[in-house]
Specification:
Length: 305
Amino acid sequence: MPAGAPTHCDALVVGGGPGGLTAALYLARFRREVLLIDDGASRAARIPRSHNYPGFVEGIPGIELVAAMREHAARYGARFAAGRVEALELTPRGFLVRWAEGEASAPLALLATGVADIEPSMPHLAQAVRQGALRYCPVCDGYEAIGRSVGVIADSAADLHEALYLRHFTERVTLFVASAELRFAEAERRRMEEAGIRLVAEPVHAIGLDGAAVRVSHGSAETRCDALYCALGLEVHSGLATALGALHDDDGSLVVDAHHRTSIEGLYAVGDVAKGLNQIVVATGGAAIAAASMHLALQTLAASG
């Protein structure tokens, strides 16, 4: 643990993406001693340039946004520790978190541990993401697909919805299948045909970066797309809470109330780890709500002795 970081504080925040950093900022400005533990793997930091975070007319790279938010929280006294939290425990005084180089406790804790995209197998994947050739979120950047040739790689019939979503932005949408086992019902095929979505029935066996585009190999043919959207799913990082018995949906997303409280008393969750729309503005808005609720909860705890 870095020098000066508390071993006991008012609130613990796990996760250093936009949600966690906003919660830390608000708690610090509420004059609460807050410690944020971060493993440096924020999904937001991988965004080449976000164009729908308000106030940045030309967009902002995710890594710059995260750095600015961290500096902002630090300015008001938020403390930071680097590491991956390996355990979250209930104690008579609230919560105890442990990571490789330390531990800390607090009466309240907030999880902003996010999700991880299930990535396709391809060389130069990080470069493809940086260039915007490989994408994961049509809600975030469907606008950038206007008029372009885009592909969607799917591993379930439900992923047809992503192709239909993108069809609103461009007439050139191709749906690829990740395996030969994936089949679409007649009604689903009819929806594709009516929407003008091209279905490639042969499973994808290779994906490669082709300049600023992506080359998808299927069967004995290839298709070149300006951008490929990966619809292979998400890994929700909710294990710290579910190990305590927190309620979650079938995908693992934590169920929270209007104040972003989980079913575990004193434990909050914001951002992609919580059930809801996976967007930076949703994470920051939820974090503001959660931090305000935590501040009032701490007042109640102090009053009750």
